[in-house]
Amino acid sequence: MAIGFGLVSIITLQGLQANKPPECRFFFPYTKNDCVDTEYDSNGNIWRETPYKDGKLNGIVKKYDINGKLSMERPYKNGELDGIEKVYYENGKLESETPYKNGKAEGIKRWYYENGNIKQERTYIKGRRHEYKFYTEDGNFLGAVRYRNEMMIEFVKCPKKKLSNDETESVLDEFMLIEGSRDPGADHDDVIKEYCEE
């Protein structure tokens, strides 16, 4: 039994049960073959399940909240993110989904309001952000931001008004502050609402 940061990782080897891969067992040198590493919280509840195949992350990593509800699914193939990552609200509804290919975000990442409507869409091309689209909780288009060369905003589109160059620069500055702050309360949507709503 290993304890670290309030989590307990119990490492055992069990036989196959109903097509379920065995729990991982670690020896030195450190190897993981075809198994699932199950980590538990301090109350003995499953916190995370991590599948391995041929010594690499392979399959869907599942994380659970303190109530035992699924909070995240993250797909891996040969050690790299590959497939659609899903994050869930506490009530079990989908909060976001992100497509990955060969370890990079590829396609449209979507965030949802708890009512199920799309909150935000981000388009990624080869892991680089391309365009963000924002929506109100009742489903109306709020605005869009398109990037050029990852860092520069090419344009900000609002449905009912045209922004000046200074306003577009302000949007870029505020986006950069949000992305640099790592503040979980900071939200791109608030910036777009400020500049796009009349």
Can you describe this structure?
13% of the residues lie in helices and 46% in strands. The chain is mainly beta and 198 residues long. The protein folds into 2 domains: 78 residues, no CATH class; 93 residues, no CATH class. A hairpin with a 2-residue loop joins strand 13 and strand 14. The N terminus is likely disordered.
Please give a quick description of this structure.
The chain has 198 residues and is mainly beta.
Supply database-style keywords.
single chain, 198 residues, mainly beta, 2 domains, 13% helix
Q: What's the arrangement of secondary structure elements?
A:
Elements: E1 2-4, E2 7-9, E3 35-41, E4 46-53, E5 56-57, E6 59-64, E7 70-77, E8 80-81, E9 83-88, E10 94-101, E11 104-105, E12 107-112, E13 118-125, E14 128-135, E15 141-148, E16 152-157, H1 165-181, H2 188-196
Overall average pLDDT: 82
* Gross geometry: elongated
- Helix percent reads 10-25%
What is Rg? 21 Å
Order of helices and strands: EEEEEEEEEEEEEEEEHH
Q: How many E strands?
A: 16
Q: Approximately what portion of the residues adopt beta-strand conformation? A: over 45%
| Number of structural domains | 2
Largest sheet, if any? 16 strands, antiparallel
Query: Which class best fits the helix and strand makeup?
Result: mainly beta
Low-confidence stretches: 1-17
Amino-to-carboxy terminus distance: 59 Å
- The count of helical stretches stands at 2
Protein name: Toxin-antitoxin system YwqK family antitoxin
